[in-house]
Amino acid sequence: MKIIIINGPNLNLLGKREPEIYGSQTFEDYYNQLKVEFPAVELAYFQSNIEGELIDKIQEVGFSYDGIILNAAAYTHTSVGIADAVKAITTPVIEVHISNTFAREEFRHHSFISPNVKGIIIGFGMKSYALALQSFF
Fold first, then answer.
1. Among residues 30, 65, 75, 97, which one is catalytic?
2. Quick count: other Cβ atoms within 10 Å of Cβ 36?
């Protein structure tokens, strides 16, 4: 099973950025844990702060992978382009958010991506990614 995690803007700062919201673990450390926890999955990872690069990656893997775990971060609330890319592909997508977006600023309560995904996991910290991986089994 081939699954890719695609992370959007500022998630490269996990472990440093607002630890009261996002925790103190880097994503790279957590990613290595996921690879150990899910040895049967061929797991890949991509992160970009650039919207077009995220769209390019979704299009690149969106017809050949078994699943995409997408944390579009702030682009969740602003990007029709990412939403359209998700809608255009055949690979199922799980939308993930580390924090409970509904407990935060009101602009974070809307997702352009949600109508086009298989499911959404919000607010379980980094464990949100493991829950998303489990959903593909």
1. 97
2. 7
How many whole angstroms separate alpha carbon 115 and alpha carbon 119? 9
**pTM of this prediction exceeds 0.90:** yes
Residue 77 designated active-site: no
- Residue 109 annotated as catalytic: no
Are residues 132 and 101 in contact, defined by beta-carbon separation less than 8 angstroms?
no
Active-site residue (options: 22, 65, 75, 129) = 22
Per-residue pLDDT of the chain (137 residues; tens, 9 = 90+): 999 999 999 999 988 877 777 778 899 999 999 999 999 999 999 999 999 999 999 999 999 999 999 999 999 999 999 999 999 999 999 999 998 887 777 877 889 999 999 999 999 999 999 999 999 99
